[in-house]
Design goal:
Layout: H1 4-13, E1 15-33, E2 40-58, E3 61-75, E4 85-97, E5 102-116, H2 117-123, E6 133-148, E7 153-166, H3 168-176, E8 185-198, E9 203-208, E10 211-222, E11 229-239, E12 242-248, E13 253-267, E14 276-289, E15 295-308, E16 315-328, E17 333-344, E18 360-373, E19 376-388, E20 402-412
Antiparallel strand pairs: 1-2, 1-20, 2-3, 3-4, 4-5, 5-6, 6-7, 7-8, 8-9, 8-10, 9-12, 10-11, 11-13, 12-13, 13-14, 14-15, 15-16, 16-17, 17-18, 18-19, 19-20
């Protein structure tokens, strides 16, 4: 017979396995540049994305792994071919309540294949400079632990690693172009201790101090004196301690604030303005209940951080603004809008004849989603993005405009559920 501890362990591990498949088909019509230096061209695009997810859920553990393939086709395109670009993506997520006080988490992502720069915005969020189409490998992984020291205090530690590199013709073109990178090699390791203390029913105090080390190979290093772009290797060490305060003003509104300082040591020295800069965040979250069951959620925030550009090899303060609103109109309909603006304050006019690289990004999207049935979901909307050099240079001007009207259809094997790993 099983002893009581063994029986308790079996009960805690007992759970359910589930598998779910889905296929999303999206069509676009609009305009976008063929490459980062080309003129804007009108055209059409299509995306087919099959996805399969295996999940395991028990009383203490939630584990999910999914695989998807993003098959993208656009005409006209830079290569003047009908061949689509295919990106394979595997996501992994595990969350476990190891003890009543200790929670453990792990995440992972593997992306390999070809992607246009509309897909690269997921791999490199808020990245201003992106190539048109690249072949690459990206592996990211992370583990985390949160321990409840008391009813008010929680202590956590997150560890992560990122490794990205070009593959195939992308790596060959980088070498053939005198070392100018389409997609540089990158390895980054981050450790982030964090602490949360509940001051009252409405107030939480937070503190975190991320420390990272990154090495970038064959990046586009900009000479701070001449503006000439050459190829080189860059290493950086960054630490950015900050303290924050979250205040629930009412049941529907909450305010979050954080402030601190970042220190970056870059070798070789780049045009970083200063190795020390303030960092912080100010944001508000809201949840409104409307008539007829309508619920609206929104968030808006301004963030200042210290950004080491993995493509350009520059470093300096980056400001970003993000706004988003979603409304559940009824059990079937959801509408939303979001906007983002980010710019890096390291811009400097380049030498005559040298193209100023992009360090500013603006993007917006509108969407309407309808759950037709438990197995069918439709979505349509509008996407916009544009890129420009830093606002500090005289050559500032947006020139990478994308405007897309799109519609998509998703068929799945069961009713969609919110994913633990986005």
């Amino acid at each position: 017979m099983l002893g009581l501890p063994a029986a308790a362990l079996l009960v805690s591990l007992a759970g359910n396995f589930d598998i779910n498949g889905a296929v999303t088909v999206e069509g676009r019509v609009g305009e976008a540049p063929l490459n980062t230096e080309g003129k804007i061209e009108a055209g059409v695009a299509g995306i087919v994305m099959p996805d399969v997810m295996l999940s395991y859920i028990s009383r203490t553990t939630d584990a999910r792994i999914d695989y998807s393939a993003r098959i993208f086709w656009r005409t006209p395109n830079e290569a003047q071919t009908l061949k689509p670009v295919i990106l394979h993506v595997v996501n992994l997520g595990v969350s476990s309540q190891a003890t009543p006080r200790l929670q453990l988490m792990a995440t992972g992502n593997l992306s390999v294949g070809e992607a246009d720069y509309t897909a690269l915005t997921v791999v490199l969020p808020n990245q201003p400079t992106l190539p048109a189409v690249i072949d690459f490998l990206s592996i990211t992984g992370g583990v985390g632990a949160t321990e409840a020291l008391s009813r008010r205090a929680k202590l956590g530690l997150n560890l992560s690693i990122v490794n990205r590199r070009p593959l195939g013709q992308t790596a060959e073109v980088s070498a053939a172009a005198g070392g100018f990178p389409l997609f540089p090699r990158q390895t980054t390791v981050v450790a982030e201790p964090n602490f949360r203390y509940t001051l009252s029913r409405r107030d939480d105090l937070t503190a975190n101090s991320p420390v990272s080390y990154g090495t970038y190979s064959d990046v586009a290093v900009i000479d701070p004196n001449t503006g000439v772009i050459t190829s080189g290797n860059v290493d950086d060490t960054t630490t950015a301690p900050q303290v924050g305060w979250q205040h629930r003003m009412t049941r529907r509104y909450s305010l979050r604030m954080a402030a601190g300082a970042a220190y970056v040591h870059v070798s070789p020295a780049l045009d970083t303005k200063s190795p020390v800069a303030p960092v912080g965040e100010l944001g508000v979250d809201m949840q409104l209940a409307g008539h007829g069951g309508m619920v609206t959620r929104g968030a808006a925030g301004v963030r200042l951080d210290y950004f080491v550009d993995p493509v350009l090899g520059t470093a300096g303060p980056r400001a970003s603004v993000a706004v988003g609103v979603t409304s559940v109109l009824n059990p079937r309909w959801l509408v939303g809008a979001e906007g983002t603006y980010a710019t890096v304050f390291v811009g400097k006019p380049t030498a005559p004849g040298i193209t100023q690289l992009d360090e500013t990004l603006v993007a917006a999207a509108l969407l309407a989603r309808c759950r037709v049935s438990d197995h069918l979901t439709t979505e349509f909307g509008f996407r916009y993005s544009d890129r420009a050099p830093s606002v500090e240079v005289s050559a500032f001007g947006f020139h990478q405009r994308q405007l897309w009207l799109y519609g998509s259809l998703t068929v799945n094997t069961r009713r969609p559920t919110e994913r633990m790993v986005k």
